[in-house]
Structures are given as C-alpha cells and as structure tokens.
C-alpha cells in the first residue's frame, strides 16, 4: 500500500506550523491503521507512506479504516487532508528492511493516477479481495488504464463505501490527455534519476528544446518515452511521439510530423506553414526520435519553436541539432559495479546494469536469480558491455542456453555474440553491430577515418595524442579538433577530463571493437600502431625523468591514466617483432611499475622483451637494470644477480651511461648484503659511489651512501654508518625526489629501531609512509609499515603492531616481496606470543624462516635480538615435540599459504 497527501506543497507554503502538527496526526492515524491489520510501514518519505501486508484483504481493511479515520479528524487549522492510496500485489526484493523491484514501481504508478481521498486497487489485488471485502464496501470498475510507466495497461478498481467520497475527477493516466506514446513490452529499469532530471528540465520555462544524446544502445528512446509520459498531464494539447528512424530524407520530416499530429496539407500552402499554424496556439510536447540521420531538418524544428510559444521539443539523437536555445542531456550508460572489487550481493543488486541483466534474464528464464556463484560473471559481463542497455538485454536473452559463467568467455567478440534481439525491433536494435553501424553511417568520410584510427587508443587519450598518432602525415580530410568535436557530438566518443583538467576522449569498448575492424580493413593498422607506440614511448621517457622531481605526483597520475595505452603498445611491439621499441618502452617504465607496485607485471613485460632481443646494447642494459631491481625487491636474488652481471658485461662492450653501471654495482651489493657478505657489499657500494660521484649523479650518490650506511651499521661501525646516513638523507631532501627521500627515511629509521630508539625510528618511518601514501606509491611502503609495526611492538602496543604487520604482509603478497613478508610474519608471531598463542608463534616463525632461506637472507644478530624475548616466552608453553611439529608445519606452507594463514583471522581483534 502506497499513500501520499494531495496538495501538501501548498499546505506547507500556506501554514508550515499547522501543517507540521497535522502531518504528525496523519502519520499516527495511518500507522495505527496499518499495524492494526498486521501491516508493516517499511518507509516514509515526507508525507508518503509505504507499507506491506500479509494478505490483500488486510491491506484493504487498513486502507478503508485509514480513510475513515482521516475523514473524521477535525483538521481545523489546515482543512481536510486528502490522502490518496494505491494497493498492488506482487513479489518484491527485501534489502535491509526496504523493498525493491517492479512491483513497487507499479504501485507508485497506480498511486500517481489517483486523487486525494481515493483508494485504487490493481487487478491482482482485486482478484484476491473481491470475495473478502470489508462489510459495506464495494469495488467500482474503472476499466483498463494506461499508467505512466508505458508498460501494459492496468485494470483499475476503486474502493467504495457509503462513508467514503465517491466522485473524483478522471484518473491521471495516459488515457486522459491526447498522446500517441507507444506501450512498451517491458518496464523501464534503473533510470529513475534520469527521468526526473529530464522531466524537471522540460518543466523549466527557459527550456524549449532538450536533446538526449548518446551512443547507440544507451536507451535514449526508452528514456525519452518515459520522461514524456511523466509530463503528459502538463501539456494541455498532448504529447506526441514522432519516429524518424525510417526517414532518411530531411525533406520528409515535415510530412512525418504532420502524420503524427494528423495535420493535413492545405492547397496553396506549404506543409511547414500548416504545421506552424496548427501548433501556434497549442500547448504541446513533441518527442522526435532518432533525429541524427535527418539533422539537416533542424532549421524546421527551430522555426516551429520560434513561432509556437506553447511548443516544447524532446529529441533523441546521436548528434546535437545546433538550433538556438537547444539544451543537451548526455545519456550515460548504466551504473556499473567494479568486477575486481565487488560489493556484497545485497549491495550489488543496487547497480542499474546488474538489475537490468537480472530482470531481462528472468524474463527469458523464469528461475534465474543473482547468486554469489554467478554474480562475478554478471558484473564482468555488464562491465565488458560498457553498461549499454541494448548490449545487456541482448546478453541476458542468451541465458536460456548459457549461464553467466559460460557466457563470460564468449564475450571476446561481443559484436558477433550479441545478436538475436526481438523480431519486432528495428534491425539496427536487434544486434549490437547494427546499432554501432547505424552511428558509423552518419559520419562523413574524414570522420570515419578518424574514428577508425582513434580505436588504436586503449582507455582513451588526451587531445595532444590524437594528431601525432591519427594525422602524423596530415592526410586526414578533417581538422583533428573539429573531427573530435564532431565525433563527440555524434556520440561515438565521450569527452571528460584527464590529469590537471586536460580534455580526454574515450571510446566505449563495444564501439572500439567495431572501429578496430574498420582500421584493419583500411590497411593502415600497422603504421598507426607504430605511431601509437612511438608516441607513448616518448611520453614514458618524459615521465621517467619527471618521476624523480617535484612533478612526481602529476606524472604518476598521468602514467596511471595511460597505463592501458602503454600495455597496448608493449603488446604490439612484441607481437610485431618491433623488439627494440618494446625493450626501450619496458626499460623506461620500470620506475613507474616499481612506484605503483606492479613488480610482477613489470618483470613479465621486461623478461619477454629481453627474450625477443638478445643483442648487446645500451637499451638491453637499461632493461636488465629494471629487471634487476624488480627482482631484488621480490627477493629473487639469483635473477637480480644474473641481470646485473650481464649488464656489467654489456657495459664493458657497449658505451652506456655510467649511472646504469653504478646501478648494476648496487644491485650486486644488495645481493651480497642480503646474503650476509658485508665485505663484498661494502666494496660494491663504494665502487658505485665513486662512479656516481665522477658522473655527477647525485641520486646514485645518495642511494650508495644509504646502502653503505646499512652495511656499516650491521658491521658495528655505528659512527661511520651515522655519517653515511646523514649525508645520504641530506642529499635526498635536497633533490626533492620523494621516493628516494622515503627510502632514505626507512633506512635511517630502521637503524634507530635496531638501536632501541623506537620513538625516533617510528617518526622517520611515519614520514616515509606519509610520502608514499600521499602519492599512492606502493613500492617500498611495505618496508615502512613493517618498521612501524616493530616500533609499536617495542613500545608495548601489540594491537597496533598487529594492524601494521597485517597491512605490510597483505601489501607484500600483492608485490611478491618475500623478504618483507618474512619480517611481517615474525612481527605477527611476536604479537601472538604476547597473547599466549604458542602454536601460532611456532608456525609463523617457521614460515618466516623458510621464506628467508628461499631468499637467501641472513638475519643480523640485532634483528634476531628483537624477536628472541617473544620466542622465549612462547616456547615453554608447548612440549618440544609439539613446538617442533608446529614449526615444521609453518615451514611447509610456502609464500601464499603462509600469508593466507597469517591473515585468515584477526586473533588480536
């Protein structure tokens, strides 16, 4: 049962205080009537009530009593409150005490048709109550009525009784005002906000012409029809729909309009004049559908609006009409869930695209429902189809043959898969390819070439990228900026903002697939791909230098946005045997991959590029440097050493930058340090420092100094270590390289921790973590978190230590960092010891030991000293046999399994 108060806005404006008191009494009377008959008020919005009942007869009794109570109330200050009510029966979906689904939409439509004091029933409700009506009541048959949802007509009944009002104006349905709005086969789902925005725009006095734009398949027509239905009561002379999809000659638009309005041509006058005379004194809304192919008829629309003050026009088109006073409403695809970060299933159902797929699938297969098993597949299907309603409906229709899980892998070619729409739809709406081809046909020849070439961009691009890739030879017959503007206007491109408000252009993936086919057919694909790869190599090279300066944050964001383009370029260079180009691009991107934590992905690209081009060169040396550092950060010491040694061999044969040679020495120094060979590590770091100073490479100098500080500290040379640290930290601050500075802070902070100064060590690592987090950097953040966990343990805050070590461990798993994972596992073991969980302590220490051995890391005595008190407390709690067994079980877990065990619950919670 839905209810609301007729004319409440005017009552509030007239006397807010009296209305507030009256509404409190109204709420009390309604709630009493509902609850007295077993009902439940699940929502109130303003003066509207929404209630459910165990049975239809109880709902009718509640409505009857509520109307009698309301009529007998005094309402001295406000006058009678006239409440309309609607009762409809059907299934609904319950979520968090609220209800959703088509049944509620139908009830709302039924309510909007009624008048204050009137109780309306749908046919399903009437059939359930006709033999169980309250004493003295009856039902008046109001006949089949077209509700404003444009779905099937509803047979409507009115509850009657001697003490209830019986005479009301005609129901506010589509039958009352003149209109030709077509009945729709299914209800509109998930566009409530858009319908309200469009209707409210057309209610404004200054909006005479509103054009809904969007690519094929976004549901412009359905949205326009529903918006028009909402407005049918507000146009005295009606709402008329004019289908232009079958019209290709702009000169036929006038006759098509005349046919929809039943306007006959007069002798001696033009049809345009007859239309203008007919509309000149009428208050009327015209819905002009699919105007893009007759856009040259736009002046006719402008002339009619100019000469007919009561006329308003709602247009659907893939391009604007460009007439005076035109407003645009861009119809976006349906709201999507992120397939990689799905919310719980009860929240997933809120997403428009998911709702549409579910309802249309249920129409094709009655027992279909969204479940935890199929929800990820449904979410991915909707995302891969860009949230386009047409594409989603076509996919859902396949549910008879394929489950969502089976459907998902077949969407590699959605243009081929998504066919078979309803036979009564136009051909262009029966397949996704048809819808896109329809848009393509509206482009000029030059625009079609730009459209095809633009498909090379993955995830879109900024304006500056288009000309060097799509018009490098100057052979486009359209100006690039004008062409892009036209493609946006014609809804095959979308425009948004990129980094620092740069204009960015994006093509939906479903459209992009069609455009790629056109590019392949043109014979220009290889050259365009080369231009694309060269452009993004230049961008990556500029970014590589900017990532070490004050513009680091901006360039990280820019490279993030262009990462898909970089991946596409890498993929093509490797497939097309453009290996030198691919090797350069991969070697250039490694610092970005490191900062963003894409360790494994970066190594995959680099290793594949290296395998395809084994020629000794400066480019190969740069790629080997990248592999060496990423492997070092993942604890793959053998690969790091092999890469560095090969790099040094190349440097002896080929002229390469001395900073790269110094970098190879530091990689080898890091490997020696991890393996406990401090003498060799110090020698290699000193060589790197000398080479870096000679080259004037201050960043390499700072890195070498910090590494020498670590070695000196572990050798017990604390004063020497302090000198290295202070010089390295000062140089890092001077260079304004935030990533380098954060790494320096971690090294110095770790030294303070090992000296027992958890306060100073914590402060430095907090600063480091802040620098990483404010830029979204993940590379080395795990070190800072781990150190902060140990600082918390040292000050006795086991709970905070647990939180920090768990966060460090989770990040280490994402990065593939075995060494820091081992550190965090031991930190969690110490927290477990403080809680007396001896078996967990043994398993975690055993797992950490195995990881450390796999890396080849030799723990320093000072590090072991931090852990020993916790081990000493836990070991006596178990027998030697049980302790050894738990330790051995931990050693068998491996990297993923040990982390899963450590994170599977929160014992300190």
Keyword list:
Alpha-Beta Plaits; 41 helices; alpha/beta; 909 residues; seven-stranded mixed sheet; 17 strands; Rossmann fold; five-stranded parallel sheet
Compile the SSE list and pairings.
Layout: E1 2-5, H1 8-14, H2 16-36, E2 40-45, E3 48-52, H3 56-72, E4 83-87, E5 93-95, E6 98-100, H4 102-113, E7 119-122, H5 123-129, E8 138-145, E9 154-160, H6 192-203, E10 209-213, H7 220-230, E11 239-243, H8 253-261, H9 271-279, E12 284-289, H10 298-307, E13 311-317, E14 326-330, H11 345-348, H12 352-364, H13 375-384, H14 389-396, H15 404-407, H16 414-417, H17 432-441, H18 445-454, E15 461-462, H19 463-470, H20 480-489, E16 494-497, E17 503-506, H21 509-522, H22 525-546, H23 552-561, H24 563-575, H25 579-596, H26 599-612, H27 618-633, H28 637-653, H29 658-674, H30 678-695, H31 698-714, H32 718-735, H33 738-754, H34 758-774, H35 781-794, H36 798-815, H37 818-834, H38 838-855, H39 861-874, H40 880-891, H41 894-903
Parallel strand pairs: 4-7, 10-13, 10-14, 11-12, 12-13
Antiparallel strand pairs: 1-3, 1-4, 2-3, 5-6, 7-9, 8-9, 15-17, 16-17
Write up this protein:
The chain has 41 helices and 17 strands. Among the domains are: 2-160, Alpha-Beta Plaits (2-Layer Sandwich); 192-330, P-loop containing nucleotide triphosphate hydrolases (Rossmann fold, 3-Layer(aba) Sandwich), CATH 3.40.50; 345-433; 742-903, Serine Threonine Protein Phosphatase 5, Tetratricopeptide repeat, CATH 1.25.40.10. It has 909 residues and is α/β, with parallel strands linked by helices. It has a seven-stranded mixed β-sheet. Strands 11-12-13-10-14 form a five-stranded parallel β-sheet, with helices on both faces. The protein is 58% helix and 9% strand. The longest helix is centred in the middle third of the chain and has 22 residues, at 525-546.
């Amino acid at each position: 049962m839905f209810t609301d108060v007729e004319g409440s806005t005017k009552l509030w404006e007239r006397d807010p205080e009296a209305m507030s008191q009256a509404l409190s009494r109204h709420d009390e009377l309604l709630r009493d009537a509902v609850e007295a008959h077993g009902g439940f008020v699940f929502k109130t919005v303003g003066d509207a009530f929404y209630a459910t009942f165990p049975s239809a007869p109880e709902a009718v009794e509640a409505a009857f009593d509520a109307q009698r109570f309301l009529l007998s109330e005094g309402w001295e200050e406000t006058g009678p409150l006239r409440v309309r009510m609607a009762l409809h029966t059907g299934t609904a979906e319950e979520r968090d005490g609220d209800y959703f689904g088509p049944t509620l939409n139908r009830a709302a439509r039924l309510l909007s048709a009624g008048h204050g004091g009137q109780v309306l029933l749908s046919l399903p409700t009437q059939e359930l109550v006709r033999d169980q009506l309250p004493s003295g009541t009856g039902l008046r048959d109001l006949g089949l009525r077209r509700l404003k949802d444009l779905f099937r007509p509803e047979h409507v009944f009115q509850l009657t009784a001697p003490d209830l009002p019986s005479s009301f104006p005609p129901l506010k349905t589509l039958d009352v005002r003149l209109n030709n709005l077509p009945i729709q086969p299914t209800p509109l789902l998930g566009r409530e906000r858009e319908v309200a925005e469009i209707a409210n725009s057309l209610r404004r006095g200054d909006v005479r012409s509103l054009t809904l734009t969007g690519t094929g398949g976004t549901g412009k027509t359905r949205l326009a029809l529903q918006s028009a239905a909402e407005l049918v009561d507000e146009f005295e002379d009606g709402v008329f729909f004019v289908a232009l999809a079958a019209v290709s000659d702009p000169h036929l638009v006038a006759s098509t309009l005349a046919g929809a309005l039943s306007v006959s041509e007069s002798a001696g006058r033009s049809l345009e004049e007859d239309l203008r005379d007919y509309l000149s004194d009428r208050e009327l809304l015209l819905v002009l559908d699919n105007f893009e192919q007759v856009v040259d008829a736009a002046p006719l629309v402008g002339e009619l609006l100019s000469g007919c003050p009561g006329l308003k026009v709602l247009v659907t088109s893939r391009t604007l009409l460009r007439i005076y006073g035109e407003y645009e409403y861009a119809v976006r695809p349906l709201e999507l869930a992120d397939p990689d970060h799905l919310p719980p299933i009860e929240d997933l159902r809120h997403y428009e695209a998911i709702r549409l797929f579910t309802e249309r699938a249920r129409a094709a297969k009655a027992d279909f429902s969204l479940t935890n098993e199929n929800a990820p597949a449904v979410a991915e299907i909707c995302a891969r189809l860009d949230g386009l309603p047409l594409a989603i409906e076509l996919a859902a229709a396949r549910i008879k043959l394929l489950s969502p899980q089976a459907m998902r892998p077949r969407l590699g070619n959605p243009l081929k898969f998504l066919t078979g729409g309803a036979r009564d739809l136009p051909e262009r709406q029966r397949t996704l390819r048809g819808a896109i081809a329809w848009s393509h046909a509206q482009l000029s020849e030059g625009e079609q070439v730009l459209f095809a070439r633009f498909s090379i961009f993955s995830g879109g691009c900024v304006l500056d990228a288009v000309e060097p890739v799509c018009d490098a030879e100057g052979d486009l017959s359209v100006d690039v900026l004008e062409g892009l503007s036209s493609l946006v206007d014609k809804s095959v491109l979308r425009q948004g903002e990129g980094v620092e408000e740069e204009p960015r252009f994006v093509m939906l993936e479903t459209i992009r697939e069609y455009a790629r086919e056109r590019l392949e057919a043109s014979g220009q694909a290889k050259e365009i791909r080369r231009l694309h790869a060269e452009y993004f190599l230049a961008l990556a090279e500029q970014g590589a230098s900017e990532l070490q300066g004050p513009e680091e944050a901006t360039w990280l964001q820019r490279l993030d946005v262009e990462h898909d383009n970089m991946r596409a370029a890498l993929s093509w260079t490797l497939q097309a045997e453009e290996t030198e180009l691919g090797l350069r691009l991969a070697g250039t991107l490694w610092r970005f991959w490191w900062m963003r934590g894409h360790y494994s992905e970066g190594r995959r690209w680099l290793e594949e590029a290296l395998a395809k081009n084994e020629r000794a060169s400066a480019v190969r040396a740069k790629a080997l440097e990248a592999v060496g550092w990423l492997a070092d950060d993942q604890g793959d010491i053998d690969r790091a050493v092999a890469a560095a040694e090969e790099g040094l061999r190349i440097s002896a044969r080929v002229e390469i930058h001395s900073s790269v040679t110094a970098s190879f020495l530091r990689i080898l120094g890091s490997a020696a340090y991890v393996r406990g060979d401090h003498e060799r590590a110090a020698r290699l770091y000193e060589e790197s420092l000398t080479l870096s100073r000679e080259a004037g490479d201050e960043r390499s100098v700072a890195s070498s100094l910090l590494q020498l500080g670590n070695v000196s500290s572990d050798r017990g040379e604390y004063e020497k270590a302090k000198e290295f640290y202070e010089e390295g930290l000062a140089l890092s601050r001077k260079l304004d390289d935030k990533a380098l500075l954060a790494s320096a802070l971690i090294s110095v902070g770790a030294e303070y921790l090992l000296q027992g100064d958890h306060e100073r060590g914590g402060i430095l690592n907090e600063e480091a973590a802040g620098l990483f987090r404010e830029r979204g950097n993940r590379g080395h953040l795990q070190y800072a978190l781990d150190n902060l966990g140990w600082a918390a343990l040292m000050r006795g805050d086991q709970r905070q230590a647990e939180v920090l070590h768990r966060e460090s461990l989770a990040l280490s798993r994402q990065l593939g960092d075995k060494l820091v994972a081992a550190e965090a596992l031991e930190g969690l073991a110490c927290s477990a010891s403080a809680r007396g969980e001896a078996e967990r302590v043994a398993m975690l220490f055993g797992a950490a030991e195995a990881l450390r051995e796999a890396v080849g890391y030799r723990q320093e005595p000072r590090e072991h000293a931090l852990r020993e008190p916790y081990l000493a407390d836990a070991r006596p709690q178990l027998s030697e046999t049980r302790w050894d067994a738990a330790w051995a079980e931990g050693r068998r877990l491996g990297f993923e399994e040990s982390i899963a065990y450590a994170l599977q619950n929160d014992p300190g919670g």
